[in-house]
Amino acid sequence: MSLIKTQIESVIIGKQEAVELALTAFLARGHVLLEDLPGTGKTTLAKTMARSLGSDFKRIQFTPDLMPSDITGMNFYNTRTGEFEFRPGPVLTNVLLADEINRTTPRTQSALLEAMEEKQVTVDGVTRPLQQPFLVLATQNPVESEGTFPLPLAQQDRFLLRIKLGYPAKADEATILQKHAFGDPVAALAPVLSRAQVLQVQDMTQHVHLEEALVQYILDFVEATRQSEVVALALSPRASIGMVKAAKALALLKGRDYVLPDDIKLLCLPVFAHRIKLKQAEKYKGWQAEDFLNQLLTTIPLALKERQPKDRQQ
Question: What CATH number has the domain spanning 208-304?
């Protein structure tokens, strides 16, 4: 996996943490919400991941007039054969970029729900499994609100991670100008792994060891959000399951067969922040979900036994 990470970072300059998180979601069979300003490399990241992982890539530009059938596909009548035929939609791919997902109606947004959670689509009563691996990278602009439809909470909860790319540093942007101004570095990339190899690596994540103390730490964290008086919508069991999957995937990405406390702390905001809703009074005070989670990171104790050298060799 280090070769894949290195290749992606050769195109996505100066965003090592974002690349690491995106690959973590892919290994954990999760989905990513990319929330950032236009032109920061969200589409390039999706294309680079698909090319490096030997996977098919498709893009949907979400607009107010987009229909659910534009995502899932539809049955059309073939006049030559006199039969209805299925025309697959762009969701039947490996890596799907849902660009500006908050610019379409909730009815169309919900067309992704079954695909993201169940890895299948149903059209006219017929259910079709999606290709594997399957990853949705959805983008939205956090600044512009005119002509947008906020993502339903049910759909936000189906994204394993929320990632923010941000503007590059000045030195990194100079490198970006050299590589991207007069060429397409993505087109020159070669797959590092085949689809079959990718599926094998994804299966390996479930064998990564997670200490019982770390499981209790995650449960304590989730329970603290449910007991807090400032939280209107706390973390669900899907959030704690997502943290376990993401922590194991991140450990594997870093070349380990066990999870460290730092893995969970690094993933805390990307996995949890978009799932929590604070009470309106707290928002008026300028408090965000990230502030609340950072406070929990400093107050919830973690009792973890030191791993023995023999454990590291297993």
Answer: 1.10.8.80
